[in-house]
C-alpha cells in the first residue's frame, strides 16, 4: 500500500462504473492498486450515498472519493464518513446544504438540456441519437454509440434530491472543470468550484466525459490529491 489511499470512483447519470475505464488504467500505471468503482443505482441521493458508504466501509484504510457529474453530489453527501480523507470533483455537481443538482442546473441550463427525455416509468434518458454530441463530443462516434446504448438512466426525481451537510466544507477538495461541457454548464462548474476553495482547480478543453476523453489529465489530478492526503 505504501501509504496510498483507496480511491473510490463514483459515476454519474447516464453512465456506470465502466465510464471510469480509461482513468482506472492511468491510475494503475501510476501505481495505485487499491481502486474501486462503485455502481450506484441512480434511484435517489439517499440510495446512492448509502451504496457509496458501503464501499467506503469496505476499504482497508483512508479513502479518496472521486465523483463525476451527479457523482459529485453523491460524494458531497457520503464524504462525511470518517474514513474519507479527500474529495475530487470531475466535471461534477458540488451542491451546498439544501441545494440539488436540478436546482443548480436551472441557474445556467446546459446546451444539451433539450436532449433529455423522460419515460413512462419515471426515468430520465439522454436521447440516444443525441448522446454523442451532448455527453462526449470529444470521443469517437463509436465510443459515443456504446455509451448511448449502455446508458444508465436515473429516476428523474433524483435531480431534486438536496444535500444535507456538504462534505466539501470539512474535507480537502480538488476540482476539474470541463470547458466544453454540454451537460453541466461550465459557469455552474466555475461557481461550485470557486466557493469550495479547493486545493487545486484545473480546466480541461473537454466535454462532460473528461474522465474518458482526458484520462491522463484526470488521473494526474486524482494522483496529486492522493499524494496530498497520503
TrEMBL record:
Gene3D superfamilies hit by this protein: alpha/beta hydrolase
PANTHER family attached to this UniProt entry: AB HYDROLASE-1 DOMAIN-CONTAINING PROTEIN-RELATED (PTHR37017), ESTERASE_LIPASE_THIOESTERASE DOMAIN-CONTAINING PROTEIN (PTHR37017:SF11)
Descriptive protein name: Esterase/lipase/thioesterase domain-containing protein
Annotated source species: Lysobacter enzymogenes
Lineage: Bacteria, Pseudomonadati, Pseudomonadota, Gammaproteobacteria, Lysobacterales
Amino acid at each position: 500500500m505504501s501509504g496510498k489511499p483507496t480511491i473510490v470512483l463514483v459515476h454519474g447519470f447516464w453512465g456506470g462504473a465502466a465510464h471510469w475505464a480509461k482513468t482506472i488504467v492511468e491510475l494503475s500505471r501510476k501505481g495505485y492498486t487499491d481502486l474501486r468503482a462503485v455502481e450506484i443505482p441512480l434511484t435517489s441521493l439517499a440510495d446512492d450515498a448509502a451504496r457509496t458508504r458501503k464501499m467506503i466501509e469496505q476499504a482497508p484504510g483512508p479513502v479518496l472519493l472521486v465523483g463525476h457529474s451527479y457523482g459529485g453530489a453523491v460524494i458531497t453527501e457520503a464524504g462525511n464518513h470518517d474514513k474519507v480523507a479527500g474529495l475530487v470533483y470531475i466535471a461534477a455537481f458540488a451542491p451546498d446544504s439544501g441545494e440539488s443538482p436540478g436546482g443548480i442546473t436551472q441557474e445556467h441550463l446546459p446546451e444539451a438540456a433539450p436532449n433529455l427525455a423522460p419515460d413512462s416509468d419515471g426515468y430520465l434518458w439522454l436521447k440516444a441519437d443525441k448522446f454523442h454530441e451532448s455527453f462526449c463530443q470529444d470521443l469517437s462516434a463509436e465510443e459515443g454509440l456504446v455509451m448511448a446504448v449502455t446508458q444508465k438512466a436515473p429516476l428523474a426525481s433524483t435531480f431534486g434530491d438536496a444535500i444535507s451537510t456538504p462534505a466539501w466544507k470539512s474535507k480537502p477538495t480538488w476540482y476539474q472543470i470541463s470547458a466544453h461541457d454540454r451537460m453541466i454548464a461550465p459557469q455552474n462548474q466555475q461557481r461550485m468550484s470557486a466557493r469550495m476553495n479547493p486545493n487545486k482547480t484545473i480546466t480541461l478543453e473537454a466535454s462532460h466525459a473528461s474522465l474518458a476523453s482526458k484520462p491522463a489529465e484526470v488521473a494526474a489530478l486524482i494522483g496529486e490529491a492522493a499524494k496530498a492526503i497520503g
